[in-house]
Amino acid sequence: xxxxxxxxxxxxxxxxxxxxxxxxxxxxxxxxxxxxxxxxxxxxxxxxxxxxxxxxxxxxxxxxxxxxxxxxxxxxxxxxxxxxxxxxxxxxxxxxxxxxxxxxxxxxxxxxxxxxxxxxxxxxxxxxxxxxxxxxxxxxxxxxxxxxxxxxxxxxxxxxxxxxxxxxxxxxxxxxxxxxxxxxxxxxxxxxxxxxxxxxxxxxxxxxxxxxxxxxxxxxxxxxxxxxxx
Length: 230
Hints:
With 230 residues, the protein is mainly α. Helices cover 79% and strands 0% of the residues. It folds into two domains: 36-139, no CATH class; 145-230.
């Protein structure tokens, strides 16, 4: 049997006329068309929503960055020529960043600036409030450490030694270990625990050297002062 004869014997039952194929397509569309359109609509909506969200996030970051730069300019103006109006402007701009862009790192820097100004104004309660705000606003690891260190100093200045010590008690202080130990030494000197202060200052010097840095002269002076009482 040659291939032509074999070809003639092929079952042609699956073949349809054009009209039959159109009718089959219509029937399929009746059964599946609505769900297909819904699936396409949902997919398009998800893509559109994702792109809109990305654009919104970028716009928020850009606006926060611009607001922070304006805040820095205002702070610079205060440092050059301080007056009540300029200081109030800085406070207003910093608070605006905190309220409207709390999810960005810029809001934490704004709180830092408010805390610094509060310390200059000898308003330690406000400084404490701003620093605690940063700690409650999901700071990065490094920012969290710097904030805890500054807060410990503010608490120490308010004679809240126990709270300050609690902040200094943590062990995972990374590259800021020397600063934590130095402040601990300062507090121990204040309590007239000179041996404890010597130990803290010595450990601080070693921590600085571990960073391949030279210990600051002020640290050496503090260590010598504490040793003079032994």
